[in-house]
Design goal:
Shape of chain A: globular
Strand content of chain B: 15-25%
Low-confidence stretches of chain B: 18-41
CATH class of chain A: Mainly Alpha
Helix content of chain A: over 70%
Largest interface: A-B, 43 and 45 residues
Strand order of the largest sheet of chain A: 1-2
Structural class of chain A: mainly alpha
Shape of chain B: elongated
Radius of gyration of chain A: 21 Å
Distance between the termini of chain B: 12 Å
Largest sheet of chain B: 7 strands, mixed
Largest sheet of chain A: 2 strands, antiparallel
Structural class of chain B: alpha/beta
CATH topology of chain A: ABC transporter involved in vitamin B12 uptake, BtuC
Mean pLDDT of chain B: 85
Number of domains of chain B: 2
Oligomer: heterodimer
Number of strands of chain A: 2
CATH topology of the largest domain in chain B: Rossmann fold
CATH class of the largest domain in chain B: Alpha Beta
């Protein structure tokens, strides 16, 4: 019985110690301050808007977190979003009777193909992920530009059920938010409880050790990029449904928001630590900052500076934690 | 275009790709067989008749750009009305020097008028001056060449005209009084700021004294950011009546947001937008009215200006008048500038007549 009683307490303690606590506190403080200034910030419509705004970023952040945990980075996600958004929008406008599921699957497939190419180039080309995905960022964007040829898909060309999908809810929860929660939850579970996930942490902590330990590094690396690409593709479908206007420039610069969300969410840029749900919280925090600054009437020039300060702060906190862990490990060694 | 910088980047990158893939020059669209070329008289005679059979060639920034296709289609209509010969040539990329070889070819073909949207104000100058030495009249549209190397420039709209039109639409939709807000592109976009300045001057006038501009927000021409800024405006100003967005991205994002939120029907959206992007929101009642210059009219006016130059009706000097078919009478302004006029307003009644 006692173990049953202590389990929740231990979980709570773990939660309090978690790196994500800082984000939760920052989020709570920000929401409280903004709501004090303008109570409408906590209205149903406003909360719904914030969650919907977060959904796309959070889906991409989940994939990016996995890639960063394996000590890689995927800068091509904004361009993958564009390929998928434009492709799916074109598909849906040409075949208005297609169900939403087909659109989602098509987006996932396009994204997965892009991600697969990234993974293969990183692993077998032996080129740093930063360089490979910087290259594919331009390649995928260029392909979209040449495919779109200056055209755009407008809301009146998209089937109504596709556009409604972005606003419809099930049991009061918008579909987009539900998808984001399922993605974050699923990927978190995989990273925390499954062998594949733990192997990815190991790879990020020490690539050489992971290889020597017999971890299938090649498969896992490609898998991480595949997942990141597929989720960026999924985000593209959500983007098309939400905004209704898609041109080749869709999602330009999103990669930096995604990386920022992941870093602010407590995932170490050198891999091996952090959580996927932390990245989701990071996405939520960045979105709330954007919405709060608009409501608080703060000069928007400050917004970017604040996001930048948060990133620096997150990395600083990260470093602090690392130093303390190293210190406590040393202490423990001295006892032995 | 309103989203100039983004469109140019779009066009530029697309063009790079196309050029890389095809590795060959442009395309020629020839409509009629050759005819005798007429040359214009040197000085202006307001009573001269417009000549028939004029060879009028259009050289847009690049081919296969939907916006310039609409512009040149207006030119084609005008040339038909003038009983002239229409021709359209152009490069596949919008780089600075890509139009030069096309101008040289048009000179050899002894066109009467070249209507060109200059990709670079200076790069095309030597060729255009060669054309003018060969008694070809040069009219620029969309983007001007240096005033020294063309006879007339068709300006789609003046800053003043756009600012006035935006305030007029805001006043109509606010019912004459109430709070309004502006959703602009970036805080340092030159054209946006010029329009907003004119709007502020207009709002200071007595007839607009009951309109209150509460905030200018910036959506950075990004869908997500424009969404968030529109949400912020609606939350911060519960009595807001109208959001004026003089950018195509901003107005589409604000409309999409309002159409799917509880604010629909309470807040009006207006501004500058593309009919194709806005059709959905006009039809579902979110947007009652918005405006933009009609690109087809730009090409139409350019063709008539070219014909008037070539027929000797005008020489490009300030104060000369000519009639441009269905658009009515125009007066040449300073430095050969001809202003198209106030922007076209789009409503549920007329939006289906436009496809751009």
């Amino acid at each position: 019985m006692s173990s049953l009683a202590t389990a929740p307490a231990a979980a709570l303690q773990g939660l309090l110690r978690a790196r994500e606590l800082g984000i939760v506190l920052a989020l709570a403080a920000l929401v409280a301050y903004t709501a004090a200034g303008n109570p409408r910030f906590l209205s149903g419509q406003s909360i719904r808007d914030i969650l919907l705004n977060t959904a796309i970023l959070a889906v991409m952040a989940a994939g990016q977190a996995v890639v960063v945990i394996t000590r890689n980075i995927d800068l091509s996600v904004g361009s993958v979003l564009a390929v998928s958004a434009f492709g799916v929008a074109t598909l849906m406008s040409a075949n208005p009777s297609l169900p939403i599921v087909v659109a989602l699957l098509a987006g996932l497939a396009v994204g997965a193909a892009c991600g697969l190419l990234n993974g293969v180039l990183v692993r077998y080309g032996r080129v740093p992920a930063l360089v490979v995905t910087l290259g594919t960022l331009y390649i995928y964007r260029g392909v979209t530009y040449s495919w779109a040829g200056g055209q755009q898909v407008n809301a009146d060309e998209l089937p109504p059920h596709f556009l409604r999908f972005a606003n419809d809810s099930i049991l009061g929860v918008p579909w987009l938010v539900l998808i984001a929660v399922v993605v974050i939850g699923g990927v978190s579970l995989m990273m925390r409880n499954y062998r594949l996930g733990r192997e990815m942490y190991a790879m990020g902590s020490s690539p050489q050790a992971a290889e020597l330990a017999g971890i299938r590094v090649a498969r896992n690396t490609i898998g991480a990029f595949l997942l990141s690409g597929a989720l960026a593709g999924l985000a593209g479908v959500l983007f098309a449904a939400r905004f209704g206007t898609v041109d080749a420039a869709a999602g330009t610069g999103y990669e930096l928001n995604v990386v920022a969300a992941v870093v602010v969410g407590g995932v170490a840029v050198f891999g091996g630590s952090g959580t996927v749900w932390g990245a989701g919280l990071g996405a939520l925090l960045l979105t709330v900052i954007g919405s709060a600054l608009a409501v608080l009437d703060i000069n928007q020039f400050w917004q970017q500076a604040i996001v930048g300060a948060l990133i620096v702060l997150a990395i600083g906190a990260d470093r602090l934690v690392a130093v303390r862990i190293a210190g406590s490990l040393r202490k423990r060694d001295s006892h032995v | 275009m309103v989203r100039t910088s983004r469109k140019i980047v779009t066009a530029g990158i697309a063009a790079l790709f196309v050029a890389g893939l095809t590795a060959c020059g442009g395309t020629t669209k020839d409509d009629a067989a050759t005819g005798a070329g007429n040359q214009a008289a040197a000085s202006a005679d307001p009573n001269a008749k417009l000549k028939e059979g004029l060879k009028i060639a259009f050289l847009p920034k690049q081919l296969n750009n939907p916006y310039s296709d609409v512009e040149t289609s207006g030119g084609e209509t005008a040339v038909k009305e003038l009983k002239g010969e229409y021709k359209k040539v152009g490069p596949n990329d919008a780089s600075a020097s890509s139009q030069v070889s096309y101008i040289n070819t048009l000179i050899q073909q002894q066109q009467d008028v070249i209507v060109v949207a200059a990709n670079d104000p200076n790069a095309v100058c030597p060729s255009l001056n060669q054309a003018r030495q060969a008694k070809i009249k040069v009219v620029t549209f969309d983007s001007d060449a240096s005033p020294g190397c063309r006879d007339a420039f068709i300006n789609q709209a003046t800053t003043q005209g756009i600012g006035e039109s935006l305030v007029k639409m805001a006043r109509e939709q606010a019912g004459g009084a109430g709070e309004i807000a502006i959703l602009s592109a970036t805080p340092n976009a030159t054209n946006q700021n010029a329009w907003i300045e004119v709007m502020k001057t207009e709002l200071a006038k007595p007839e607009n004294s009951k309109l209150k501009l509460v905030k200018t927000a910036y959506g950075n021409d990004d869908d997500q950011k424009s969404f968030q800024e529109a949400q912020g405006l609606l939350q911060s100003y519960p009595n807001l009546k109208v959001i004026v967005s003089p950018t195509t991205v901003g107005i589409a994002a604000a409309s999409r947001y309002v159409s799917s939120s509880s604010y629909k029907g309470k807040v009006a959206i207006t501004g500058l937008g593309l009919p194709n992007q806005m059709r959905e929101y006009v039809k579902d009642g979110t947007v009652k009215k918005f405006a933009l210059w009609n690109p087809a009219d730009i090409g139409y006016l350019a063709a008539f200006a070219g014909a008037a130059l070539s027929s000797g009706q005008i020489s490009g000097a300030e104060g000369e008048k000519f009639t441009a078919g269905k658009l009515g009478e125009y007066t040449v302004g300073k430095a050969g500038e001809i202003v198209l006029g106030p922007p076209t307003e789009f409503t549920a009644e007329n939006i289906d007549q436009f496809d751009f």
